[in-house]
Design goal:
heterodimer, A: alpha+beta, Alpha-Beta Plaits, 2 domains, seven-stranded mixed β-sheet, five-stranded antiparallel β-sheet, 12 strands, globular, B: alpha+beta, Ubiquitin-like (UB roll), FAD/NAD(P)-binding domain, 7 domains, about 20% helix
Chain lengths: ~200, ~1000
């Protein structure tokens, strides 16, 4: 069959680009589905923790965080999600490429499982990002507590979420399960509407 | 007299007050069109307009007015707004006036002024404490049908809206170093001290204007008027980046771990909330330290007719005069047991209100009170009491005053300002279970053991003087900040004098004439308390339940202390011994909508959408909720009117040609690692370590107790890589089980697992033409012939131009079938590609109903059979239990009761009359036996109409099932009056040899 398959963003037809909510001026936050990210679960094999660290350091110039943090490497960053467990994230190795790369480079040291299609990643950025997230995230995002590189796995509006702070805008990447993306978007936009929000087209 | 400058607000003072006279606001109360000012509450605007009668009481329909100026108000309850926004039992004292406000009095008929139900008062002798318990005991059947409806009509308060609330509500989380509860003098001082020291501070104040009694008293702080100091404090706090001011926010509950619940009335002061903002926001605040500066609530002295409109707490009188520039009366009598009498008298006189008398219960009346009375030209009655407030429905007309010699005098008045002292607002200190402690000197309950991290400052701690409030608040704020590591850089504490208190406890006038109320909102009088004591209820908690004292929406904030004092007197015990009823959250009523927040309607819980959802919706699929998933149930076509018609077409299309079904919702778990095979051998009852790479196998999982947990197929994708599937319903439970087994039981195993349910879009393609459709989807040179890719084969493929997918030759339908998986982002494109590739073969999409029909035809157990009560033996899977290895549930599954041959086991049934319809849930009884539980031999779990057989079929559990094939039994369904004779058969109706699977 010659027809090729087109990828569909998790929020296709739902996240409508444009200015929404209160006001017409600068929005309180911008929202964007990040379809460019490769997301892969990396789980250390028994007793291979140190070897894995070295392999990650040499392959990606990245450090595996011991806690809930996001540490960026050259092309791949790692988010601690549990003891011996990370999410590897890469904007340059999208689709299934990241899993293929990790599987090859970490053979015998870690089990690697692609999660890039199982998750939807939403970038929220802007001066009111903390106020929006406070309407569902039971975690303190004050800059003295949660800074760029801080990460957490928690729950928002009954949906599991992993997030990390990207920069001091502040901007956050929120990782949710793909099947829940529409429900999550409903909570997110309801919560952001008070401050005005702008939906930026999904990145591919 | 300075009252009455604007004609439409006859009791508005000519000047003063924290209201904006440039902003008149129109509002309606019942049939009165009135005007108030920005800064008014509904209560203050009603007072300015001389409206005294505001509501009717709960039980006796007695006329009631405004007693307080805060959220403790028991009387002035109204229905606010109309239609779906109608909000009953709203306290007029907390409603911020807005232009166009509409409120109605409640609990009256036909009108507030002519309430026919006031005849209840005539029955008052019969409506005392314990009335319901004593009167409506017999006959029992009358309670529900006669008594309760009649009582509900007559008693009760406002009417709830009947339509759904159109406004949104939200939840939110906040975190801080120091939470300050209350924005009065102590709270402002505490927030300033903590904020200046650099702490993250949240200040919650239930008023829309911070300041508390600073705005209500003619006092000074330092060299400034008190209200001006409050405004400056608020401005300083607002300028601090790490201080959050939360006006209109009541902290209503204390929970473990420094967690507080607070309700923010975001849009209640507007006719309709601003676009995109909620009406209310329910906060969960986590604080490292808390300063409770909630102030105190004044309590009345109990006397005859003390519930009449025009009887008002002295502090509230001062609030209305000083903050709102509204005079609650023109001729007042002040009645107090403490030094409040002096300030109240002075403030009334300054506002031009005639003070006819100051009735002081104390033997030695202090000079300040004497002087205030003298200056106001008021008669001072020392050691006196008011035995009755007389009047009509428009309120008080006179006071019957008795002096120390027992001589009575009648004084005309339309306002009785009463003060029985103040009760610290300590409710929050008790929410974790601590009991308050009675303080004899202050005649008040004080906080007992405090919740961890909480300090109490000012009036809430029983230190009522303004100077004490400021000093304690400042110290508490500075201490909290210092304890959290901040420098002690809070500056100097604000300074004011302490006013005298001079309280001499005096709770109720024993020689009152007429009914004297302790709890206004629930119409509990002194005689009710006395009756309860005579009936044997001497414990505070018992008294509460027997009389309903303190059980109304105000939770007895004004009445409880006096109620306990009356109980103490009646039982000749000290108040300390009587104690206090338990304080529980919420401190103020909270709307249910605020607890629901975002989670209402479709957002009640999250919805999971399958990869084919958008396509299925375009096609007009009917969806069904399975757990959180929304799955296509069937796909109706034009002209089809009945679900069975659609489902039958889908089954026939699949069995005769080819069908496709989204099976992505099944749980999928990636299991990897050198010990993956060993791990699966231990969690499955059958063996997986021997499964060749490239093959799949059916697996059965037991619980520890030997019953079946779940089933599914697991494929081996590599030496150290398995791909497990679970049922949709048990996906989470199985994942938890596996994590538990690995982390707790066998941490030594080198195995890793992660859910990939969401990663893969997976479609079942089933039917005689399935191979042709699959072949058309795969990229060239991938052989799916029966030889190259036989039944139960599994492996990687590339699909439609290079997408890395997986193919499994699995069948739930019993037909030649494949499951094809691609990364979920391609799921939408793949279902469209499948439909295109299948079009030449007449492909039909099928939903969960057709899926169910086909699995019943094949006798595959599903959720109805895997119901947590069935064993492998019951399901006919006994031979799957490996005897060569250990596995979870092996030992317990061997218990005699679980292997008893007499247990009910899975069978098929078909009706003896071919046209008869079977119904799930029917019970099996022998053919000629009566339908009774003694004869119960099992039940019918799943039924379907089989298009291929042309009649209904069913699966069920039957005692000694396999031995009874061919026997005719009854499937009895007494609930639906259906009784069908069925023939027992093997639980597989179509292709029992499985020939179709292997072509």
């Amino acid at each position: 069959m010659s027809e090729t398959l087109t990828a569909r963003p998790a929020l296709a037809g739902i996240a409508l680009p444009g200015r929404h909510g209160t006001g017409n001026g600068a929005p309180g936050v911008t929202l964007r589905e990040r379809t460019d990210l490769g997301v892969v679960a990396v789980m250390a094999r028994k007793g291979q923790g140190e070897a894995l660290r070295m392999a990650v350091a040499s392959a990606y110039r990245a450090t595996l965080p011991d806690t809930a943090r996001y540490l960026a490497g050259q092309t791949v960053g790692f988010v601690g999600t549990g003891p011996g467990q990370w999410l590897a994230v890469s904007a340059s190795l999208g689709g299934g490429a990241l899993a293929v790369d990790l599987t090859a480079k970490l053979a015998g040291l870690a089990s690697v499982s692609d999660q890039g299609d199982g998750r939807a990643v939403i970038r929220i950025a802007g001066p009111r990002a903390r106020d929006v997230l406070a309407k569902g995230l039971p975690i303190d995002l004050h800059p003295s507590v949660f800074a760029p590189g801080s990460a957490a796995t928690s729950i928002i509006s009954l949906m599991g979420v992993t997030l990390w702070q990207v920069d001091e805008t502040p901007a956050y990447d929120l990782v949710v399960f793909r099947s829940l993306a529409v429900s999550f978007w409903s909570w997110l936009t309801d919560s952001a509407a008070e401050y005005g929000y702008e939906v930026v087209p999904a990145t591919n | 007299m300075t009252i009455g400058t604007p004609t439409d607000q006859p009791s508005r003072l000519a000047f003063g007050g924290l209201i904006d006279r440039r902003l008149p606001l129109r509002f309606r109360f019942d049939d009165l069109e009135l005007t108030g000012y920005a800064g008014d509450t509904l209560a203050s605007a009603l007072i300015a307009n001389d409206v005294k009668l505001v509501g009717r009481s709960f039980k006796y329909h007695r006329p009631r007015g405004i007693l307080t100026a805060g959220s403790e108000e028991p009387n002035a309850l109204v229905e606010l707004r109309a239609g779906p926004r109608r909000e009953p039992n709203t306290r007029a004292t907390t409603i911020e006036l807005y232009d166009g406000l509409a409120a109605d009095s409640q609990n009256r008929w036909p009108s507030l002024r002519h309430d026919l139900l006031a005849v209840n008062q005539l029955a008052a002798p019969f409506l005392g404490a314990g009335f319901y318990y004593k009167t409506f005991m017999w006959p029992a059947a009358f309670w529900e049908k006669v008594y309760e409806p009649a009582i509900r009509r007559a008693a009760g308060l406002g009417r709830a809206a009947t339509a759904a609330d159109p406004d949104p509500y939200e939840k939110a989380f906040a975190f801080c170093d120091v939470l300050v509860i209350g924005g009065g003098p102590a709270g402002l001082a505490a927030a300033l001290a903590a904020g200046r020291a650099g702490a993250r501070v949240i200040l919650c104040d239930e008023d829309f204007l911070a300041g508390g009694r600073l705005n209500a008293e003619r006092r000074g702080v330092g060299d400034k008027p008190a209200y001006a100091w409050a405004a400056e404090a608020v401005a300083e706090l607002a300028a601090m980046p790490d201080v959050t001011l939360m006006p209109r926010t009541t902290v209503y509950g204390v929970y473990d771990g420094g967690t507080y619940a607070a309700i923010e009335r975001v849009g209640d002061h507007l006719p309709v909330p601003a676009p995109h903002t909620p009406r209310q926001r329910n906060w969960k605040i986590v604080a490292k330290r808390t300063v409770l500066a909630a102030g105190a609530i004044e309590r009345p002295i109990v006397f005859g007719g003390n519930d009449r409109p025009g009887v008002m707490l002295a502090g509230a009188v001062r609030t209305y005069l000083n903050r709102f520039a509204a005079a609650p009366g023109r001729r007042a009598v002040v009645f107090a047991n403490n030094d409040e009498a002096a300030a109240t008298t002075a403030d009334l006189a300054a506002a031009g209100v005639v003070v006819a008398a100051v009735v002081d219960t104390r033997r030695d009346v202090p000079a300040a009170t004497r002087e205030a009375a003298k200056a106001a030209g008021a008669l001072l009655v020392a050691e006196g009491r008011i035995v009755e407030a007389k009047g009509g429905r428009r309120g008080v007309r006179s006071a019957l005053i008795r002096n120390r010699d027992g001589r009575d005098m009648h004084l005309a008045c339309d306002l009785i300002a009463v003060s029985g002292g103040w009760s610290p607002t300590i409710q929050l200190t008790s929410h974790l279970g601590a009991k308050p402690m009675w303080d004899e000197a202050r005649a008040a309950q004080l906080p007992g053991a405090l919740p961890p991290g909480m300090a109490v400052a000012g009036a809430a701690a029983g230190d009522f003087g303004l100077g004490s409030c400021l000093a304690e608040g400042h110290a508490a704020g500075a201490d909290a900040a210092e304890a959290l590591g901040h420098d002690r850089s809070s500056g100097a504490a604000p300074v004011a004098d302490d006013e005298p208190a001079g309280l001499a406890p005096y709770w109720h006038v024993k020689d009152s004439a007429g009914k004297a109320f302790v709890d206004f909102q629930n119409d509990v009088s002194v005689s009710d308390v006395a009756l309860a004591v005579r009936d044997g209820f001497r414990i505070a908690e018992h008294l509460k339940r027997y009389t309903t004292l303190g059980m109304a929406t105000d939770q007895g904030k004004t009445g409880n202390t006096a109620g306990m004092a009356v109980l103490a007197e009646a039982t000749a015990r000290p108040v300390a011994e009587v104690g206090m009823t338990t304080f529980r959250p919420p401190y103020v009523p909270v709307a249910i909508g605020a607890f629901a927040g975002h989670h209402r309607g479709k957002a009640f819980r999250p919805t999971r959408l399958a990869p084919s959802h958008a396509w299925a919706a375009e096609r007009g699929a009917v969806f069904v909720e399975t757990g959180n998933w929304l799955r296509a149930q069937w796909y109706p076509e034009a002209g089809e009117t009945d679900w069975l018609e659609s489902v039958t077409r889908e089954v026939k299309g699949t069995r005769e040609r080819v069908g496709v079904c989204d099976v992505s919702t099944l749980g999928k778990i990636d299991v990897q690692g050198p010990d993956a095979g060993t791990f699966l051998d231990r969690v499955y009852a059958n063996t997986f370590s021997t499964l060749p790479v490239g093959k799949a196998r059916y697996g059965l999982m037991l619980r520890e107790d030997g019953f079946v947990l779940d089933d599914g197929t697991t494929a081996r994708l590599g030496e150290e890589h398995y791909f497990m599937t679970t049922t949709t319903a048990n996906a989470v439970k199985v994942m938890q089980h596996l994590e538990y087994c690995h982390q707790v039981i066998w941490p030594d195993l080198d195995v890793q697992m992660v859910s990939v349910t969401e990663q893969w879009a997976q479609y079942a393609i089933a039917g005689p033409k399935a191979r042709a459709v699959v072949a058309a989807l795969l990229d060239p040179s991938q052989d799916v012939s029966n030889e190259a890719f036989p039944y139960l084969a599994a492996g990687p493929v590339t699909v439609c131009g290079g997408v890395a997918g997986r193919l499994y030759r699995l069948s739930f339908s019993g037909e030649l079938a494949y499951e094809i998986g691609v990364p979920a982002r391609y799921g939408d494109a793949l279902i469209r590609a499948i439909m295109t590739a299948g079009a030449p073969h007449g492909i039909v999409p099928y939903g969960t109903e057709a899926l169910g029909v086909m699995r019943i035809e094949k006798g595959h157990p599903a959720g109805n059979e895997l119901n947590g009560q069935t064993t492998a033996h019951d399901l006919g899977f006994g031979k799957l239990l490996s005897k060569k290895k250990d596995f979870i549930g092996r030992f317990m599954a061997a218990r005699p009761a679980l292997t008893d041959p007499g247990r009910t086991t899975l069978v098929g049934v078909k009706p003896v009359e071919p046209g008869a319809r079977l119904r799930g849930g029917a019970h099996f009884v022998p053919r000629d036996a009566t339908v009774s539980s003694e004869n119960d031999q099992g039940y019918l779990t799943s039924v379907a109409f089989s298009p291929e057989l042309g009649h209904w079929i069913g699966l069920g559990f039957l005692a000694n099932g396999p031995e009874r094939y061919g026997e005719v039994i009854r499937a009895a369904d007494p609930l639906r009056s259906a009784d069908v004779m069925v023939e027992v058969c093997a639980p597989c109706f179509i292709d029992p040899e499985g020939a179709r699977l292997r072509v």
